[in-house]
Amino acid sequence: MANSNFIDYVKVQCRSGHGGAGSSHFRREKHVPLGGPDGGDGGRGGHIILRGNAQLWTLLHLKYQKHITAGQGNPGEGAGRTGAQGKDIILEVPIGTVAKNAETGEVKLEVTEDGQEVILTPGGRGGLGNRNFKSSTNQSPHYAQPGEKGVEEWVVLELKILADVGLVGFPNAGKSTLLSVVSAAKPEIANYAFTTLVPNLGVVAYRDYKSFVMADIPGIIEGAAEGKGLGLRFLRHIERNSLLLFLVSAENVNIKEEYETLLGELRKYNPELLDKKRILAVSKADMLDEELEQEVQKILDNEIPGDIPTLIFSSVTQKGLDPLKDTIMRMLTQKDEEVY
pLDDT tens for residues 51-88? Predict the structure, then answer.
């Protein structure tokens, strides 16, 4: 498979460092008769940190790194010396990575910016040395705090691709062909179902030096929410898209039914996806003569709700691509309350 290196889900065991113990030490030097407690604090245990990296687009580098362990904090020493901190482990991840607790599924954090650093698994705090417990009524404390233990947990890292426009459609709806024509992306294109096996991204150039990012995910089929096909696995990649572009092939005899089937699968996966801005476009217009094209346009005008923009285009002849890009850019730049 050409894009077999695309990995968007990994499960790793994270073990942060234990904090170092505080020191219970007393200053004893010649000619210093009033020496007292001077035990230093223990060092913090190492964190496990996620750092966003715009140059990465997959979690492949973490696929075989199942156990991640940070360094232990060193104990404190006499003369008020604090122990060294444990070594932090920094994991570079693509922008759009979500970390979840593997047992509960609870979202721990998200990485959404290049260079952003967030602590995934915090290290244990170092214990206080006995100098911290000195007082007028307790001038020689003989105790210090132990360091806190680190955290050991299984974490799931999921990648949700960040794009402006997500393409949604059945297999062979023309999604990959559209992406290849309007951008420099080179997805696999062939005349059989599930040609696209992994998501593809492309930057679409627009006039006045503007552009937007388009994401093509594997086609979804009816029953995807029950585990059929491949699309449901990759639907997480359109959760962060600002706009969803639904593609229905002109070969389909019932455009409205196919559109509603796609909406139904998205609703079963995550009802919030239906709150996103939407466009319905009929692809492969080069297969239609003028009379059939008018019939398709009539169906779009009469059977599709008026608040959903509809278009007809052909990636092969590039007919209708400029109006499609105009509509996409208009909806991306308008505020939510202005779109409909």
Answer: 999 888 788 888 888 899 999 999 999 888 999 999 99
- Cα–Cα distance between 158 and 51 in angstroms, integer? 14
What lies within 8 Å, CB to CB, of 31 at 6+ separation is: none
Cα-based distances in Å from 161 to 5, 105, 242: 15, 19, 12
Gap between the Cα atoms of 318 and 338, Å rounded = 29
> What is the reported pTM?
0.71
- Cα angle, residue 60 at apex, residues 55 and 65 outer, rounded to 5°: 120
Q: Which residue in 240, 227, 225, 219 sits closest to 158, CA to CA? A: 240
Q: Which residue has the tokens 């020191």?
A: 23
Strands of 150-256, DSSP E: 152-159, 165-169, 200-205, 211-216, 243-249
Q: Which of 47, 45, 121 is nearest to 88 (CA)?
A: 47
Whole-angstrom distance, CA of residue 178 vs CA of residue 201: 12
Nearest CA to 42 out of 134, 118, 135, 150 is that of 150
- pLDDT one-digit tens code per residue, 238-254: 787 889 999 998 887 78
SS3 60: helix
Higher pLDDT, 18 or 196: 18
List the helix and strand counts (H, then E) for the chain: 6, 14
- Consecutive H or E run containing 255: helix 255-269
Phi/psi zone of residue 235: left (φ > 0), alpha (ψ -120 to 50 degrees), beta? alpha
The answer to whether residues 95 and 42 touch, using CB atoms and an 8 Å cutoff, is no
- Which of 199, 214, 17 has the alpha carbon at shortest distance from 126? 17
Separation between Cα atoms, residue 340 and residue 330, nearest integer Å: 12
Chain position carrying tokens 């559109």: 259
- On whether the CB atoms of residues 174 and 249 are closer than 8 A, the answer is yes
Strand order in the sheet with 152-159: 67-69, 9-15, 152-159, 97-101, 107-111
DSSP character at residue 51 = E
